[in-house]
Automatic annotation (TrEMBL):
Gene3D superfamilies: alpha/beta hydrolase (3.40.50.1820), TolB, C-terminal domain (2.120.10.30)
Annotated source species: Pedobacter cryophilus
Protein name (record): Acyl-peptide hydrolase
Signal peptide: 1-19
Example of a GO MF term: serine-type endopeptidase activity
């Protein structure tokens, strides 16, 4: 009797333990749980890190951003703000006494964003500026006596109270932009605010836009970026300039590269300015990648430090001794941290691996603050000392501890022309050796890459019982400039070869069920979905998000006027018209498509307008191919409303289940 009772007790305890340890699969409503971390800043004394966390608010159907602070060792962490307006561009004042940020909180009838100050010793935050124009960014001077402001001229027409809106008048070449809408001609200029007197001084004038300011260590000058060609809308020729921080000062041009120079940053000893330079000096450089460079403060002795690396670099940060610069590198599914020694030119990997680093801030010699994600973990903050990571934030960890995530492995496939292509494969953790239906989910860009990082969309798809492949087709970055530019003016050719090559490889290896193939993507991923289903009929289900196929009809209705002209040509020129028609084959050969396809798009998308999805929906509907069109009201290229994000994921799963299971 006692043995029986003991045995039953053990079974009961085991059942309780199993229930406690049971993990569930991800589902679309998890968009209401995923937080995101951003903008980490190290305090001047180095003991604290300021950062923001965006938290989904299901009641308001949007994310709410608040400020947090964590100690350098990660032991103390607390929330600073709880406001409904949210805070942006938060940072410490140079003396460490205050935290400043941008907020659109309405005070004294001032409705546009202003700088607010929060005393670290306690008390409520107070509005610090009353700028009339659109305050876009700001930067403290190193001594804390001044703040550089980037302000777009005030919209006087918007101030007029009228029940009827004034007509939209376009006079720029780049006359429309996603989110922004129809663009106006109001320039953006640099100002300097005296912290004590509150006097605001305009530093630059004219019909040019200025941005990305950086102070000289002695606080006397500001370097900035501007395109001062005759018609900036017709090229990508950004250059770096410098000006004394006072009214009427003469502006000096530092760079003359015909491509793009950007992100200037003064060394702490004042001897150099580091910056990013495009590889190409062509008029249109969408397929380009940045090179890290330095120059003297007068623009002389420019040196390219990472040209031979042939990989995109970004987020350069000076070490405190001004002898080296750390930066991020995108390289074949990774984003890692490297450093270059100025004296020797030697580039050293600081830390890499099958993960993705996205942020970088200097602390002191040998110490850095970074943000890192891997396939099982969304981004969190880490300190980095002598190559050793220490995690100091734990956003999302409690929620994800109860989630059974898919496994992620890398693979390489060969396209029919012999090109080696890299990819990632997600499979449910309990899939075993079972052949699953495959969803080929394609990244946008095209100049971006899928990395060893957390991917909610693909994880949700895998949780639905699918193998999900991410393929870095030609056009992606991370494999060198030639790999990215291979598709220039020839869309839907090499990329489709690479996607089909990866599919063939996964089927041949017995990793997926070749009779149950799905395909999908957003933006250029949606465009490539259209190209692929018009090329190969074996895909049983497709989802084309924010895509286009009749490319000739996109001319003049999206934001890419410069790209169309430079890469494809002018539709009224016969040879160019032929090129437009060649890359429009998914629409002009829609009768070859047999794949049931769901089309989705934001109603106000100016990046890839809804017409692209509507045309393909109309074509397939006419041809009696199963299809559906979903348009998200008042949404741009990116879907921002949380309920729409969840709805999109649910529709993904429903569509694939209908045709693949």
């Amino acid at each position: 009797m006692k043995k029986s009772i003991l045995f039953c007790s053990l079974i009961a305890c085991l059942g309780v333990a199993q229930a406690q340890n049971a993990k569930r699969k991800l589902h679309p409503n998890d968009v209401y749980r995923l937080q995101s971390i951003a903008n980490p800043q190290v305090s001047p004394e180095g003991k604290w890190v300021l950062y923001s966390v965006s938290t989904p608010d299901s009641a308001k159907n949007k994310k709410q951003s608040d400020l947090f602070m964590v100690s350098w060792d990660g032991k103390d962490n607390f929330q600073l703000t709880y406001s409904e307006e949210g805070e942006g561009a938060a940072t410490f004042s140079p003396d460490g006494k205050y935290i400043s940020y941008l907020s659109s909180k309405k005070v004294d009838s001032v409705e546009n964003s202003q700088i607010w100050l929060m005393d670290r010793r306690g008390g409520e935050a107070k509005q610090f500026t009353k700028v009339k124009g659109d305050l876009q960014s700001y930067l403290w001077s190193p001594d804390g006596s001044k703040i550089a402001l980037v302000i777009k001229d005030e919209d006087l027409a918007a101030k007029k109270k009228s029940p009827t809106k004034a007509p939209i008048v376009a006079n720029r070449y780049n006359y429309k932009q996603d989110i922004q809408g129809y663009t106006d001609s109001r320039p953006t200029h640099l100002y300097v605010l005296d912290v004590v007197s509150q006097k605001l001084t305009q530093i630059t004038t004219g019909n040019y836009d200025e941005g990305q300011p950086t102070w000289s260590p002695d606080c006397s000058k500001i370097a900035f970026v501007s395109n001062r060609t005759a018609d900036p809308d017709r090229n990508d020729n950004d250059d770096i300039y410098v000006v004394e921080a006072k009214a009427g000062a003469q502006i000096q041009q530092l760079t003359t590269w015909k491509g793009r120079d950007s992100r200037p940053s003064w060394s702490k000893d004042g001897k150099y300015i580091a910056y990013l330079r495009s590889t190409s000096d062509e008029t249109f450089i969408n397929y380009d990648q940045n090179i890290l460079a330095i120059m003297n403060p007068d623009g002389a002795n420019s040196k390219l430090l990472t040209k031979e690396l042939d990989r995109p670099v970004g987020n350069p940060k000076w070490d405190n001794d001004s002898k080296s610069i750390a930066f991020l590198v995108d390289d074949d599914r990774q984003s890692y941290i490297s450093s270059v020694d100025l004296a020797t030119g030697k580039i050293t990997k600081v830390i890499d691996g099958e993960r993705s680093f996205s942020g970088l801030e200097s602390h002191s010699a040998g110490k850095w603050l970074t943000s890192m994600s891997d396939p099982q973990h969304p981004a969190n903050l880490f300190t980095l000392t002598n190559g050793v990571l220490n995690q100091i934030t734990h956003v999302n960890e409690k929620w994800l501890s109860g989630i059974d995530l898919a496994t992620v492995t890398g693979f390489k496939s060969k396209s029919k022309d012999g090109t080696i292509v890299s990819g990632l494969l997600l499979k449910p953790s309990d899939a075993g050796i079972k052949k699953l239906p495959l969803i080929l989910f394609i990244h946008g860009g095209p100049v971006s890459q899928d990395e060893f990082s957390f991917d909610l969309t693909r994880q949700v798809l895998a949780a639905g019982g699918y193998a999900v492949a991410a393929v870095n087709y030609r056009g992606s970055n991370g494999r060198g400039i030639a790999f990215s530019k291979a598709i220039y003016g020839d869309w839907g050719n090499l990329e489709v070869q690479d996607l089909l090559g990866a599919t063939d490889y996964l089927v041949k290896q017995g990793l997926v069920d070749g009779d149950k193939l799905g395909i999908g993507g957003w933006s250029y991923g949606g465009i490539l979905t259209d190209y692929t289903i018009a090329t190969d009929t074996r895909f049983k289900a497709g989802i084309s998000g924010a895509g286009s196929a009749m490319q000739l009809s996109m001319y003049g209705i999206d934001q890419y006027m410069l790209q169309w002209n430079e890469e494809i040509g002018y539709p009224w020129v016969k040879k160019d018209l032929e090129r437009y028609m060649k890359i429009s084959y998914p629409f002009t050969h829609a009768d070859k498509i047999k794949t049931p396809t769901l089309f989705m798009v934001g109603q106000n998308d100016f990046n890839v307008p809804s017409e692209g999805s509507e045309q393909m929906y109309a074509a397939l509907k006419t041809l009696n191919i199963p299809t559906e069109l979903v348009i998200y009201p008042n949404q741009f290229h990116g879907i921002g409303i949380l309920s729409y994000q969840a709805d999109r994921l649910k529709r993904y799963l429903d569509w694939y289940a209908k045709y693949l299971k």
